[in-house]
Write a structure and sequence with these properties.
89 residues; mainly beta
């Protein structure tokens, strides 16, 4: 990363069937059982139980998302790892 580049998070979203996302992103919105949390680079370490809702992420100004239901999220200052299932599964 160049000194002027904005920091990013490495996001991985894994379901029982496939790897949905494996990308560097600017931010992630995760639906936990206690509500929606926003995760930006430098976030404090956290383990969270996933609720039912829409996981969204922003990458280079574009926003993408999909419905998920249950699972866990491991959040570190430089990465987010989500184990879940999509609602469509």
């Amino acid at each position: 990363m160049s000194p002027n580049a904005a920091p990013t998070l490495h996001l991985k979203v894994v379901t029982p069937r496939l790897l949905l996302v494996d990308a560097d992103v600017d931010e992630v919105q995760v639906p936990t059982i206690e509500g929606l949390i926003g995760v930006f680079p430098g976030h404090r370490p956290l383990m969270a139980a996933i609720g039912r809702g829409t996981l969204t992420y922003r990458q280079s100004g574009d926003e993408e998302g999909f419905a998920i239901d249950g699972g866990t999220a491991e959040i570190q200052p430089d990465r987010v790892l989500v184990f879940t299932r999509t609602v469509e599964d």
